Amino acid sequence: MPRETTPPRILSAFAGRIVTAGEVAAGHDLSGRTAIVTGGAGGIGLEIARTLAVAGATVTLAVRSRDAGAAAAAEINRAVGRAAASAAFLDLADLATVRGFTRIWGGRPLDLLIANAGVMATPESRTAQGHESQFGINHLGHFQLATGLVPALAAAGSARVVMMSSAGHHDADVDLDDPDWRRRTYDPFLAYGASKTANNLFAVGFSRHFADDGITANAVHPGAVATALGRHVRPEQIADRGWDFSTIAMQTPEQGAATAIWASTAPELAGIGGLYLEECGEAPPWSAERPLWGVKPYSRDPDRAEALWALSERLVAG
Ligand SMILES: NC(=O)c1ccc[n+]([C@@H]2O[C@H](COP(=O)([O-])OP(=O)(O)OC[C@H]3O[C@@H](n4cnc5c(N)ncnc54)[C@H](O)[C@@H]3O)[C@@H](O)[C@H]2O)c1
């Protein structure tokens, strides 16, 4: 009888270290490759877009603010000395705009889709189609976008999707019976956690559905990064929960972009999807000894990934 073995975790030479996206991209030539970065006008997304452009890729910033997108693209183009970046309108809170984006993109080959845009701990609110905002923007909008771009991803021959997830997924599984928080008292942090669990499950489901098309998806926790993501969080909410973030060393956006760049470029991840990555390596299972790291098993469960897939198909169909 062959002995059952656990395959070794996939770790890069950068694993466990704080490195910048530029260091991870060094030596990778992305000339001729195309990439879409959602939320690419600021924060971690801008650094991912900039790094891909510096490495030679042509990058579309898929953004809610046309002005911010145009300014970010111009900044990248000045830095790389060529027309590497452009901006296109996309509001993940309105699935009609997502469909408009994928229609305009058509079947042009797409090598990389970085599903980076996100909101955190928003006050209770709804998307244009009536979904809870964090589930709607972080998960459903990206579900519609990525599935709508499958012809383009398949046309690239070997394409990668990167879901910007979060250690916030530790806080909550997706409630498949009440994903939009209609039957429960809304909790902004648990809703964020559930939306990030949905990102992890999406990476599992998407990789399974489109493996034959040469497309893989992995989820990435970028670390704790100094950006404007916490704009909705009030100090009393932190105090009420007894959280203390004062000892956490925040990374720069250039550092926060590193694992997404590794997920986009690493030869060791070729053909591999459905993983949850952090610190430029495959994360270990979550453990109480290292509570801010690791992956919760419910967020990688293939059966739950399938159930969420079926639910998401129904929800985006309206
Ligand atoms: N900053 C962190 O510490 C941290 C930690 C874990 C995970 N993340 C994840 O990293 C990703 C990037 O976050 P960030 O820290 O750069 O924050 P950020 O707020 O700077 O960037 C988020 C981006 O998403 C865009 N966005 C929001 N709603 C949108 C919508 N409806 N349509 C299109 N774009 C929309 C925003 O315009 C912005 O550009 C998010 O998915 C976040 O959950 C961040």
Automatic annotation (TrEMBL):
Which InterPro entries does this UniProt record tie to the protein?
NAD(P)-bd_dom_sf, SDR_fam
Question: What keywords were assigned to this record?
Answer: Oxidoreductase
Q: Is Oxidoreductase found in the keyword set? A: yes
Q: GO terms for molecular function, please?
A: oxidoreductase activity
Pfam families reported in the protein's UniProt record:
adh_short
The record's comment on protein family reads:
Belongs to the short-chain dehydrogenases/reductases (SDR) family.
Protein name from the UniProt record: Probable oxidoreductase
Organism of origin is Edaphosphingomonas laterariae
